[in-house]
Amino acid sequence: FKTPMPAPINLTSDADIVLTVRRHGGKQLAPSLTGSWHLEKLGDTALKDGTPSPTLELHDDGSVAGTTICNQINSTMTVAGQTIQFAPVATTRRACLDTTTAQRERAFLVGLENTRNWQIAPTGDVLVLSDDQNQPLMVFHRQSHLPVK
């Protein structure tokens, strides 16, 4: 297992330590799909209002992690060519404190459930997840501050 980025730990603090680790090695997926992604558009709604937005970490072994803003998520994905399907998503159960965030969380989880296709922009920094009719559900931007393998 490896961490997706260096994680400095303050051993003098009483705060909880949370590290994200992922399996290293195993079945390799398309290298352009793997990495850390930040949601920029959910359906027809651009999420550029300065509020936090969901994230996905897609790993080369098919594991998926991320956040819905309020909750952590874990899943797996099956990729064949340009098709992709996410297994049922496990989430923590923290309540979202405002209505907009709760609605975005629900729409994000439904979007993952309905995703059937993916496409990466030629620049490699934009990921579009689409439904079975190839209608865009979500648009992500690669998080450049995290290493991509």
Write the layout of secondary structure elements.
Layout (H helix, E strand, L loop, with lengths): L34 E8 L2 E2 L8 E4 L4 E5 L4 E9 L2 E4 L3 E2 L7 H16 L2 E4 L5 E5 L5 E7 L7
Number of strands: 10
Largest sheet: 10 strands, antiparallel
Query: Which shape, going by the Cα principal axes?
Result: globular
Indicate the structural class: mainly beta
- What is the helix fraction of residues, given as a range? 10-25%
Fraction of residues in β-strands: 25-35%
Low-confidence stretches: none
The Rg value, from CA coordinates, equals 15 Å
Helical region count?
1
CA-CA gap between termini? 14 Å
Order of helices and strands: EEEEEEEHEEE
What is the average per-residue confidence, as pLDDT, rounded to a whole number? Answer: 84
